[in-house]
Amino acid sequence: MAVTTNESGDTVTIAVTGRFDFATHQEFLKAYKDLPKGEKRFVVDLSGTEYMDSSAMGMLLQLRGHAKNDQEVELKNGNDGIKEILKIANFDKLFKVA
Question: What's the CA gap between 73 and 50, in Å, rounded?
């Protein structure tokens, strides 16, 4: 998992690689927990994600609660399988999915 911040400092990108499941919970939490709540926009880059389960979806909901506002989390670059999971769970209504 890699974490980067844009030049202006208002957007944090979290790139998830491999499996996005409960085993990555602590690492995912560390990516944002020390940032002030409600001040950042987040992008979760799923281009390197091979697998995603329900615990990952719970982690995304927690991140959503930490973001600048409810619509300030973007999920991008997921493969077709991950996009389908997000759509079935109606996450495309909670997040910007690109």
Answer: 20
Contact 17, 52 (CB under 8 A): no
DSSP bridge partners of 96: 74
pLDDT digit string (tens) for 23-68? 999 999 999 999 988 889 999 999 999 999 999 999 999 999 998 7
Using the structure block, give the residue that is written with the tokens 């974490």.
Answer: 3
Could you give the 3-state DSSP secondary structure of residue 77?
A: coil
pLDDT bucket at 83, cuts 50 / 70 / 90: very high
**pTM for the complete prediction?**
0.92
Tokens, residue 32:
């944002």
Q: Is 54 helix (H, G, I), strand (E, B) or coil?
A: helix
**By C-alpha distance, which of 39, 49, 54, 38 is closest to 75?**
49
